[in-house]
Specification:
alpha+beta; 2 helices
Protein backbone atom coordinates (compact mmCIF):
# COMPACT_ATOMS: atom_id res chain seq x y z
CA UNK A 1 0.00 0.00 0.00
CA UNK A 2 1.18 3.52 -0.73
CA UNK A 3 2.53 5.58 2.14
CA UNK A 4 -0.01 8.33 1.45
CA UNK A 5 -2.88 5.82 1.74
CA UNK A 6 -1.55 4.40 5.01
CA UNK A 7 -1.11 7.93 6.34
CA UNK A 8 -4.68 8.90 5.39
CA UNK A 9 -6.03 5.80 7.16
CA UNK A 10 -4.01 6.58 10.29
CA UNK A 11 -5.21 10.20 10.33
CA UNK A 12 -8.84 9.08 9.97
CA UNK A 13 -8.46 6.40 12.66
CA UNK A 14 -6.88 8.65 15.29
CA UNK A 15 -9.22 11.56 14.55
CA UNK A 16 -12.16 9.19 15.06
CA UNK A 17 -10.75 8.34 18.51
CA UNK A 18 -10.54 12.00 19.55
CA UNK A 19 -6.90 12.78 18.75
CA UNK A 20 -5.84 16.08 17.19
CA UNK A 21 -3.64 15.07 14.27
CA UNK A 22 -1.10 17.42 12.74
CA UNK A 23 0.31 16.36 9.37
CA UNK A 24 3.79 17.85 9.05
CA UNK A 25 4.45 18.93 5.48
CA UNK A 26 7.51 21.12 5.91
CA UNK A 27 9.23 22.40 9.00
CA UNK A 28 12.58 23.68 10.19
CA UNK A 29 13.67 20.30 11.57
CA UNK A 30 14.87 17.59 9.19
CA UNK A 31 13.76 14.08 10.04
CA UNK A 32 10.71 15.05 12.10
CA UNK A 33 7.83 12.58 11.89
CA UNK A 34 5.03 12.77 9.32
CA UNK A 35 2.34 13.06 11.98
CA UNK A 36 2.19 14.59 15.45
CA UNK A 37 -0.83 13.61 17.53
CA UNK A 38 -2.25 15.17 20.69
CA UNK A 39 -4.84 13.94 23.20
CA UNK A 40 -5.34 14.29 26.95
CA UNK A 41 -1.87 15.75 27.52
CA UNK A 42 -0.17 13.05 25.46
CA UNK A 43 1.89 13.63 22.34
CA UNK A 44 2.69 10.89 19.81
CA UNK A 45 5.07 11.15 16.88
CA UNK A 46 4.38 8.79 13.98
CA UNK A 47 6.60 8.31 10.94
CA UNK A 48 4.67 6.52 8.19
CA UNK A 49 6.43 4.16 5.78
CA UNK A 50 5.20 1.91 3.01
CA UNK A 51 5.72 -1.84 3.35
CA UNK A 52 9.12 -1.52 1.70
CA UNK A 53 10.07 1.91 3.08
CA UNK A 54 12.96 2.33 5.49
CA UNK A 55 13.61 5.26 7.85
CA UNK A 56 16.55 7.48 6.98
CA UNK A 57 19.43 8.00 9.43
CA UNK A 58 18.09 11.47 10.37
CA UNK A 59 14.64 9.99 11.06
CA UNK A 60 16.20 7.37 13.35
CA UNK A 61 18.15 10.14 15.08
CA UNK A 62 14.92 12.12 15.68
CA UNK A 63 13.25 8.96 16.99
CA UNK A 64 16.04 8.46 19.55
CA UNK A 65 16.11 12.16 20.43
CA UNK A 66 12.38 12.36 21.11
CA UNK A 67 12.20 9.03 22.95
CA UNK A 68 15.03 10.16 25.24
CA UNK A 69 12.80 13.08 26.19
CA UNK A 70 9.95 10.73 27.07
CA UNK A 71 7.84 11.00 23.92
CA UNK A 72 6.32 8.11 22.02
CA UNK A 73 7.76 7.95 18.50
CA UNK A 74 6.76 5.06 16.27
CA UNK A 75 7.60 4.10 12.72
CA UNK A 76 4.43 2.58 11.31
CA UNK A 77 3.68 0.80 8.03
CA UNK A 78 0.10 -0.32 8.68
CA UNK A 79 -3.00 0.80 10.53
CA UNK A 80 -2.91 -2.42 12.56
CA UNK A 81 0.30 -1.25 14.27
CA UNK A 82 -1.60 1.71 15.74
CA UNK A 83 -3.96 -0.31 17.94
CA UNK A 84 -1.61 -0.35 20.93
CA UNK A 85 -1.05 3.42 20.75
CA UNK A 86 -4.65 4.46 21.45
Amino acid sequence: MLESKIQANIIKHFTKHGWVVLKVIKCNMNGISDLILFKDGKTLFIEVKSDTGKPSPIQLFRQRQLRQQGFTYEIINSLEQCSNLI
